[in-house]
Specification:
Radius of gyration: 39 Å
Strand content: under 5%
Order of helices and strands: H
Largest sheet: none
Structural class: mainly alpha
Number of strands: 0
Length: 92
């Protein structure tokens, strides 16, 4: 009976060691997943900030183009009005 008790203790120690190693590997995998998720979150946050900055730049460009377009339209109207006035005065 003494031999089987010793063998059982040895088997239990090997099992405990194996379970401890598995737990360590699972912890390492969990840490790796959390680290990767954090990096992905940071990249996503940076992408959102770039998209917001790009959107703001496009909005500013739209405003600038509108200002130039409005100015061209105003100048065109002035030229047309002056041409019509000159034509009226000249041909009555």
């Amino acid at each position: 009976m003494n031999d089987s008790t010793i063998r059982l203790s040895a088997d239990t120690s090997a099992l405990t060691d194996s379970l401890s190693k598995i737990a360590e590997e699972m912890t390492a995998m969990k840490d790796s997943v959390f680290s990767s998720a954090a990096a992905m979150g940071a990249n996503l946050d940076a992408s959102v900030k770039k998209a917001e900055a790009t959107n703001a730049a496009i909005h500013g460009l739209d405003e600038s183009v509108k200002t130039v377009t409005d100015s061209i339209e105003a100048q065109t109207k002035t030229v047309i009005d002056l041409g019509a006035k000159q034509s009226y005065e000249q041909y009555g």
